[in-house]
């Protein structure tokens, strides 16, 4: 697999991150976040880049990317709805919210609209159960979701 080289700007950012850790490998999570921020998602090439940069096996990077839903393995829309489907949210209408988003955007969970504007992902507990149903909209958490909130977000980002 070809290893893609980081841009000078990203490399500088990664060096700053790793300088805060005694062992480079301990910076894996923040390094992955920075790479995802820069590239939009974590491709197999990005996994290889990160592995080479940190001096760890690619499989170690891959395992982390697959484990955390915060890392995307495909390019996501500019407005990304990550809706929690775990028990507290499920009991308070998460499925209805997901179905509403699917209907409004004409996509299924796990898909991105053809214009690249929106993505929908089902995720597990976001740790904000007291405000169920909850989603992460890009970096922002939104709780006590209802269809009106979803409609406003879709209209604002269309
Ligand atoms: S169950 Fe949805 S945030 Fe915890």
Q: What does this 3D model show about the protein?
A:
β3 and β4 form a beta hairpin. The chain is built from 7 helices and 4 strands. The protein folds into 2 domains: 8-67, Arc Repressor Mutant, subunit A; 79-157, Glutaredoxin, CATH 3.40.30. The chain is elongated. The N and C termini lie far apart (37 Å). It has helices spanning 8-18, 28-39, 44-54, 58-67, 87-91, 94-105, 147-157, and strands at residues 79-84, 118-123, 135-137, 140-142. The protein has a 4-stranded mixed beta sheet, with helices on one face. It is α+β, with helices and mostly antiparallel strands. The structure holds FE2/S2 (inorganic) cluster.
Detail the topology: elements first, then pairings:
Elements: H1 8-18, H2 28-39, H3 44-54, H4 58-67, E1 79-84, H5 87-91, H6 94-105, E2 118-123, E3 135-137, E4 140-142, H7 147-157
Parallel strand pairs: 1-2
Antiparallel strand pairs: 1-3, 3-4
Helix pairs in contact: 1-2, 2-3, 3-4, 6-7
The structure holds FE2/S2 (inorganic) cluster.
FE2/S2 (inorganic) cluster (FES) binds next to helix 5.
């Amino acid at each position: 697999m070809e290893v893609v080289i980081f841009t000078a700007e990203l490399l500088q950012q990664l060096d700053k991150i790793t300088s805060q850790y005694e062992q480079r490998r301990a910076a894996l999570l923040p390094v992955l976040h920075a790479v995802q921020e820069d590239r939009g998602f974590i491709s197999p090439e990005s996994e290889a880049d990160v592995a080479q940069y940190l001096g760890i096996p690619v499989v170690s990077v891959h395992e982390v990317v697959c484990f955390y839903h915060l890392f995307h393995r495909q390019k996501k829309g500019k407005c990304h709805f990550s809706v929690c489907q775990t028990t507290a949210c499920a009991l308070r209408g998460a499925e209805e919210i997901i179905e509403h988003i699917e209907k409004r955007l004409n996509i299924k969970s796990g898909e991105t609209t053809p214009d690249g504007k929106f993505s929908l992902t089902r995720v597990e507990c976001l740790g904000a159960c007291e405000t169920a149903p909850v989603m992460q909209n890009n970096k922002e958490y939104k709780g006590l979701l209802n269809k009106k909130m979803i409609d406003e977000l879709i209209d604002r980002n269309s």
